[in-house]
Amino acid sequence: MTYQEVTEYLFSQTANYERQGASGYKVGLDNMLAIDEHFGHPHQQYRCIHVGGTNGKGSVSHMTAAQLQVCGYKVGLYTSPHLIDFRERIRVNGVPVSEEYVVNFVESNRSFFEKLDLSFFEMATAMAFQYFKEQEVDIAVIEVGLGGRLDSTNIITPILSIITNISLDHTQLLGSSLEEIAREKAGIMKKGVPCIIGEVTPETRAVFEAVGKETGASVIFAEDNPMSPLIPPKPGDKGPRYRNIWGIEFTCEVRGACQPKNVNVFSHVMILLMNLGYLCTCEDPRNFDNITYELNAALMNVTKLTGLMGRWQTVRERPTVICDTGHNPGAWEYLSKQLEEESQKCHELRIVFGMLEDKDVYTILQMLPKHARYYWTKGTTKRAFPETSLKVFGEQFGLYGECYPTVKDAYSAAIEGAQSNDFIFVGGSTYIVADFLKTRDNMNI
Questions:
Q1: 3-12 and 99-116 helices, crossing angle to 10°
Q2: Following DSSP, what letter does each residue of 317-357 receive, concatenated?
């Protein structure tokens, strides 16, 4: 089989939540436990950090991997979904798994996998765990796929668990209330393993405190020790400048209104890992110049070190073109405010927008900026919400624009009519950003 044939097999012949929605989601860990036994428990050969949450888990995972790489570790990074190529999901020190490995892994184990009737995500997770073992990584940062308690990744016992936040998403699978979703995501908490929690509400905080007592996991609420507000940048800074509660100043290249929350979570991760002996240690980190240097070296190079894409990513200037994968109300609480701010600075705000049919379309449409020209479109997935319906619903909320059958068509129309001081945003769905990035080389971006 060629690499293309293998990826087609993975995407089309196995149960696949990303392609099918709820019908492609397999509940339970029985398959993963059988796979784990088959491969000899590969995840036990290296240390793991487990990262869950509704929003921000990808950013925090990449920041954490970058920090560990700068400190000299060989780091595995498993994330989802991918934007351009399946291999993005499985990286070692930022380098994607090879096409050859993907082909050999599937061909060598296909008969065993088919006996178990594995889902796409179960197979991908098994591949990641085995690849990290064969690559002899020191530590692996493992991002939860969906939920937590029954997620395929939840067979590991990490040195640290992280839950970034809770908001209403995947309600058909995880529950219809914040408490229910928090309980599912709290399923990654393990006995004796510290767990850092990012944003909470009174309802979700009570859930995490209860699960912490049930499991014996120590719980750290990052919001209880927030960072200082953004401080003035210094000459040469290429991103926002922060100061954490330990007095350490650093700059992060990952932009977006949501990132201060993610950076605060990461800052707590960094300090905890330092105290556990995984980073440079000292009695008073506020006077330790080396950790400040390493922190800046990591956060100013997250993209280069790990391959992070799609987080308020600047693709072009004059006109400014930004793409972001935020796709649920929690993410749009930040994105809508950020776009409103941009609309005050640019000549015209143009938004290339599409969503999935199983997302909270009405809620997000209500949050979108009114003073913008819309280019309604859809991603290449059967779960896409029709662009014609988006236009009809959008007009109910004072959002006006035209329909385009593909992201390429929508963006081409946006860029053709734009002036140099316009602002173009591409997003609404991971699939919209994926289609955009896949074709950008042929779109004169």
A1: 30
A2: TTTEEEEE---SHHHHHHHHHHHHHHHHHSS-EEEEE--BT
User: Distance between CA atoms of 210 and 202, rounded to whole angstroms?
Assistant: 12
Which residues neighbour 115 within 8 Å (Cβ) at sequence distance 6 or greater? Answer: none
Classify the C-alpha dihedral 209-213-214-215 as positive or negative: positive
Predicted confidence (pLDDT) per residue in 137-178, tens digit: 999 999 999 888 999 999 999 999 999 988 755 445 555 688
- CA 203 centroid distance within chain: 24
Name the nearest CA neighbour of 365 among 341, 335, 338, 342. 335
Q: What is the pLDDT of residues 323-365, one digit of tens each?
A: 999 988 988 999 999 999 999 999 999 999 999 998 889 999 9
How crowded is residue 11: how many other Cβ atoms within 10 Å of its Cβ?
13
Residue 75 β-bridge partners: 139
pTM recorded for the entire structure: 0.90
Dihedral of alpha carbons 405, 409, 411, 415, sign: negative
Cβ atoms of residues 89 and 78 within 8 Å: yes
Peptide bond into 81 cis (omega under 30): yes
Structure token pair of residue 399: 């959002």
CB neighbours of 195 closer than 8 A, spacing ≥ 6? Answer: 160, 161, 162, 163, 188, 189, 208, 212, 217, 218, 219, 220
Buried b / exposed e over 20-51, threshold 16 CB at 10 Å, is: ebeebbbeebebbeebbeeeeebbeebbbbbb
CB 52 within 8 A of CB 148: yes
